[in-house]
Design goal:
mainly alpha; two-stranded antiparallel ribbon
Length: 180
């Protein structure tokens, strides 16, 4: 399928996706019904995904940044867009920028009192710090996660899940890593 065909398929999918219900597990946001006025949100996410698949990571991040702007304009936490920006950095091998993006997501989630999204963003940033070999940042992120989870007794299961995910070895899913 050539690039033009992909774009046409993408534009057709956007009209369907724009009115769909979106669920973001692990963010504290059960579902969001996106009104028709945010059709551009879906377009930018799909465009970013297409560009990522073509390894055009800088352009993909720009498309995802537009989706982030759309979420913020609607008063929503831009979990999906910021995670995809971090993923684009990750696939490019820039673990530091990916971790920084996730740390910014954690700060924004904290400012909106979304502790679950904050914890998962910090966990992913910790995992990236580990990939980058930055032991001090890894320890810093883990301490922040523990503090957040211990401050709220209802988050003990989340702490357990995060600790298990940080111990997992995902190298088999990342053939672009030099250690694979």
């Amino acid at each position: 399928m050539n690039a033009y065909s992909k774009l046409v398929a993408l534009l057709a999918a956007v009209s369907v996706a724009a009115s769909a219900t979106i669920s973001w597990p692990g963010t504290g946001i059960a579902t969001i019904d996106r009104p028709e006025s945010t059709a551009t949100y879906g377009f930018h996410v799909e465009l970013g995904d297409l560009l990522t698949s073509m390894q055009r990571f800088g352009a993909a991040r720009q498309a995802y940044a537009e989706a982030v702007k759309s979420d913020r304009a609607m008063g929503w936490l831009p979990v999906e867009g910021l995670r995809r920006i971090a993923n684009a950095y990750y696939f490019e091998g820039d673990y530091q920028s990916a971790a920084t993006t996730l740390a910014e997501l954690a700060e924004e989630a904290g400012s909106l009192n979304n502790t679950e999204a904050q914890v998962w963003a910090l966990a992913d940033a910790a995992w990236l710090a580990n990939l980058a070999g930055d032991e001090s940042e890894l320890v810093n992120y883990r301490r922040r996660i523990d503090r957040l989870c211990l401050s709220d007794g209802s988050l003990s299961e989340l702490r357990y899940a995060v600790n298990n995910s940080l111990m997992a070895d995902f190298s088999v899913f990342a053939p672009h890593l030099p250690s694979w």
